[in-house]
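**Backbone shape codes:**
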Amino acid sequence: MKEPDAVAVNLPEAMTLRWWLRAPWDYVMMAQGLSYWGIFGGLLTLIAGLAFLLLPRRKGVLLGRTCIHQLFRKFVVYLRISDLVHADLTGLDRLGSIKHSFIAAPNHTSLWDVVFIIARLPSAVCVIKKPILFNPLLGGGARLAGYIANTGITRMIRDATSSLEEGGQLLLFPEGTRTKPDARWINPLKGGCAIIAAHADVPVYPIFIRSNTRFLQKGWPLWRRPVFPIQMSFELGEPLTLLPGESSQEFTARLEAVYEQELSKPHPLRRQVV
């Protein structure tokens, strides 16, 4: 049964006359968006390759993170100007003003969640899937920026802790992957976030992402057009720290309960069961 306070799932089945009339514009804008990544992602890989060889590590990391931040920031502007996405990012402004080390921990609704968050975090280091480090469009910049592969839990925890101890701000998706289509609110959380927070003694800021579409979720083909403009919101929760004597399993359960409580609240963009 459809919940009265939730919007309809933004799928092509929700076709209207406006959806058809927008089709030429939407496909052209989508194609230009892909071209943006092809051109500037490729350039970043070339620049990153040279910088990796020529620059000291710290300067290379700074350059890599700055380039990725600007690449993502400008793409978010493009999405707004092209009327493809209306994203409320004001909830992330406070996160960008924090100077100390922390873990930013969003739920993971789609492939481009990271784009919107790093567009607000100029010096973030991201935990990513290892294949991305070898992607011809994003791999060079990710390696230069010191992004951390999520394979090998011991090494991931060590690298992430070192980055935080150096003053970094870590972007980590506690679900470990995108939310599954049949999940009610989120996937069960992995324990890495709690372990890293304990080792580095830093707070965890949950970020609650909501959208009126399942576009770019698991199983959604890139060519399948949703109903544009997509509506998204990013809200920042209160920071969580490990309590005295609290285990990583207990902290993970507490963090998961925070997501469940927040994402289940009535909201215009609340997730719907498929």
Observations:
- The chain is about 45% helix and 10% strand.
- Residues 90 and 184 are 26 Å apart (CA to CA).
- Residues 1-14 have pLDDT under 50 and may be disordered.
- The radius of gyration is 19 Å.
